[in-house]
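Subject: complex prediction, re-run

Hi both,

The earlier run crashed halfway through, so I resubmitted it with identical inputs.
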Amino acid sequence: MIDLMIPFTDNKSAPYYEQIYCFIKREIQEGRISAGEKLPSTRQLAEKLSVSRSTTQLAYDQLVAEGYLEARPCRGYYAAEVESLLAMPERSSEKMELRSEAAGEERGEEMLDFSPRGIDLGHFPFSVWRKLSRETLQEGNREFFASGLPRGEQKLRRAICDYLQASRGIHCRPEQVVVGAGSEYLLMLLWQITGKRRIAMENPTYRQASRVLRGLGHDIVPVAMDRSGMRADLLAQSDADMAYIMPSHQFPTGAVMSVSRRREILNWSAEVPGRYLIEDDYDSEFRYRGRPIPALCGSDYAGRVIYIGTFSKAVAPAIRVSFMVLPEELNRRYDEVCGFYASTVSRVDQEILARFLEEGHFERHLNRMRGIYRNKHDALLEALEPLRKEFRISGEMAGLHLLLESRRGEREETLTARAAEAGVRVYGLSAYFLEPAESHTVILGYANLEEEEIRRGVQILQEAWSTKESI
Amino acid sequence: MIDLMIPFTDNKSAPYYEQIYCFIKREIQEGRISAGEKLPSTRQLAEKLSVSRSTTQLAYDQLVAEGYLEARPCRGYYAAEVESLLAMPERSSEKMELRSEAAGEERGEEMLDFSPRGIDLGHFPFSVWRKLSRETLQEGNREFFASGLPRGEQKLRRAICDYLQASRGIHCRPEQVVVGAGSEYLLMLLWQITGKRRIAMENPTYRQASRVLRGLGHDIVPVAMDRSGMRADLLAQSDADMAYIMPSHQFPTGAVMSVSRRREILNWSAEVPGRYLIEDDYDSEFRYRGRPIPALCGSDYAGRVIYIGTFSKAVAPAIRVSFMVLPEELNRRYDEVCGFYASTVSRVDQEILARFLEEGHFERHLNRMRGIYRNKHDALLEALEPLRKEFRISGEMAGLHLLLESRRGEREETLTARAAEAGVRVYGLSAYFLEPAESHTVILGYANLEEEEIRRGVQILQEAWSTKESI
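This time it finished cleanly. Structure:
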């Protein structure tokens, strides 16, 4: 862990939290703290510097909001990747609209964290998983400890096909499916099939995917969105030869791609040989109102859609199983170029998951979680009612988070900082843009909070945001 | 599965097995059967074509020996990757030195398979693994289902460091370790840190690694070996800026790199900034005679050795956990470039493996397996005694296979084909060369056979090889 010896200036014009914020930010920018390094906890740092814990918390929150730090649940704070940050506009400490008065108040309780990345693990079906695991780990099942098929076991790939057909309107054969330990790994395999590409991405988008794609050497072309999804006219004008999209429920905007836009995007892909679409269908399972949105892949008339799905959201993040469905041409190429890669998922885990799917446990689990998440979603929407005059709410009806856009044009930094000061963590939208962007929108994830916490959190937000307004 | 309709010629000069062999080989070479496609079983094909099963077996064995097919235990036969084969010298069917007479005899029993890739799963500690798994999958351990640390859990990385210190003479910190789902995945991450390189590889070498490295775009520079390992003079003359080596027990030759050669190779890496060595320590656990060979990484004075280890050999192939230890400079670069990649191994599996290591189960398992493998190794060596006048035996004292080089210069194709004909599968060395090479050496893996099978297999080999000689 890094030892932070922050030299406070005598000049009292800058409050402590701001000096801490500036110091750490500079250390990260100038590479003295490198990406992935762990920082002391807010408590440790507060003790060391003899300041209150809310002072250090405030500084960290701001650093998280601006993307310099990453808060990992139950783990602490880590320095974020710097390269992408250096492209962000410099936010001078003078612009920080934090209220320093509050920094003196000591708070005993934990922050209420509306993380958009959380999921509710309280209802994970431990007993079923344990039973399947016990039954798999039997002496007689020695074959599960031998090497398996490179693309993943036939049983799991068949179960995935059945699920995709029943729930996502995709008709595919197990021979088109590749199972892998996480979507990031699948993107690595995909890169080996398609080679370096110019990939259009919705802006804002899922930042982890853009990092992985950039890391693999692809060029990323940000394409703006409207309410119907990625703008097809802008895509056509771009020189991209591939597009990464989330048509069923875009992250983070929550937009659902309209039927006509789907047609336009599919036509774009079919127009020129070698164009492909990557459909990331990361959380289509959680839709609470309206008709289910079928996967784009199901309407792929030209064989241009690469479908990527995962069990990390729907089952648990620790279940490191994702899969992709390849259109015929790429599927043949996969065999040539990647056919020799051994599967990255253990056969034991594949067997457990296959049985979880086949025996109906997955469906039951999804239905249960859908109900639980719907209740949280509804509780959040209801609690947010009084804020509607100040905020435009979007992204509802599906997924695990909502967006609040300030109608008065308050900057997200102001909103996140005021919330943090009051003990609630919300997330700025700007971190998800591929290019520096000013934002007036914050994200509230609710998966990991109890309904009561959601209501309490919104209450605090309402006070924090309205009090500040009157200053 | 492929439907093979083989049009037998009326011309009876070419026996059926040869026509089958030629037909399938051409289908693969010309891309009509693509890499990874499954072929009918020898039984199915025999029924379909109305020939005896040993006829189809003979054809398949030859295709396996020449690398066109891959035999996967309990799975069947699959077409191999063609690209690497096209570079191999054409072996016309005329040169096939198979004895056609035997093709008519029906054999009821299975082939005895001296596969060098097999491992003995009969002694896998199922009950321990099941117990650890049950204890991990408890309601109270909810955290194991949340996302974990990108490099792998601290507990597992610490257990790996302890193991490396005690058994391999490597002193490293958990912060230098990256856990990943298989060595192939780690090579992908490594490529992102080092960029495209010119990588020297021992020739012959572990073919899977060369495929992966080539697939990532690296240039591969084959460097010949002598008894002390990769030749340092040839490495110095090459324009490689990285080398992939197996100093403790080279695959497939079984060579152990001498102390002076180690120094030369380490000096080569230290000479020019940016040079690195990848030390693949895939099966150092199994050494039966003489002193244990420490890892090269332990003498790495200049911070140039990337150490890669795996639990696939020592525990089970299905335990998809490998790890690498990065020297400081690359370790920092890893954080910058790859720090955001989530771990590819589930936390549940990491916890089970960490406890397997920490609680001494791994050590006990290794000691037990070492004894079992030593007995098999000794049984094979003893059984081979009578063949010593015909064959030079090498690669003994460690690992899970031996090499037999014909003193009379018989070609490996002859040896493998005659063995196959008699119901025993042995493997040619030529498949492991990076460039086309004539070989007089066959490989006998023994891990997956019982001692009695080993003795019986060698008995059959002795007869098959000596009978044929007198023809």
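The longest helix of chain B spans residues 361-384.

- K.
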